[in-house]
Amino acid sequence: MTDGSKEIEILMQLMAKLPGLGPRSARRAVLHLIKKRGILLSPLAEAMQRVAVKVRECVNCNNISTEDICRICGDGNRGNGEICVVEDVIDLWAMERAGVFKGRYHVLGGTLSALDDIGPDELHVPKLIDRIETERVTEVILALNATVDGQTTAHYLADLLEDRVRVTTLAQGVPIGGELDYLDDGTIVAALRARRGA
Fold first, then answer.
1. Sites in the chain below the pLDDT cut of 70
2. How far is CA 87 from CA 42, 48, 124, 197, in A?
3. Which of 191, 192, 99 is nearest to 139 (CA)?
C-alpha cells in the first residue's frame, strides 16, 4: 500500500498490467522510478509520450514504425519476392535479430481463435492476399509460433495460399510450444534455412 497517493496507485495499477509484472513487481518498479525520478522517471515519461504520439502501424505490413511505411518495407533491396508471415511484431524483431532473412514481413497481429472470436479479417489476412497479388510475391514463409493456435493458423494460411504462391514453414529447431522471441539467433537461422513446403 502507498500513503494514499492516488497518482502512485494509478501508476502501480497500470504497471501491473504489463507482461511479466504483477502487483508486487509493479510496486517495486514504481518505487524505483520515483527514487530515480531525475534519471529514470522523467525521461521515461517523455519517451512514452513521444512513442504514444509518433508510433503507428506500417500501412503495408503492420510492423510498428514512426512512418507510414516502415524501414523494411521501404528498403528496395528487400523486395525479393519473399514475405515472412509472423504472429506479432516481437516475432518480426526476433527474425531480424537473427539477421538471416532478407525479404519483407507481414504481421498478422495474432492467431486464429474460435474461442476468442478471432477470424481471418481480424488478422490482416485480406491484406496479405492483396500483397501477394500486387508485390510479385514468389514465396510466403509461415514463421508462426509452434503453439496450437499458431499451427492452426499456419494450416489455414497454407490451404488458403496453396494455389497462389509457394508456401513454406520454418523447420528444425523450433520446438513445439516454442515462441520465436525466446529462441536464440542460431536456432532461428537454422529453422529459416531448413524451411519446407507447408
1. 1-4, 171-177, 186, 190, 194, 196-198
2. 33, 24, 11, 19
3. 192
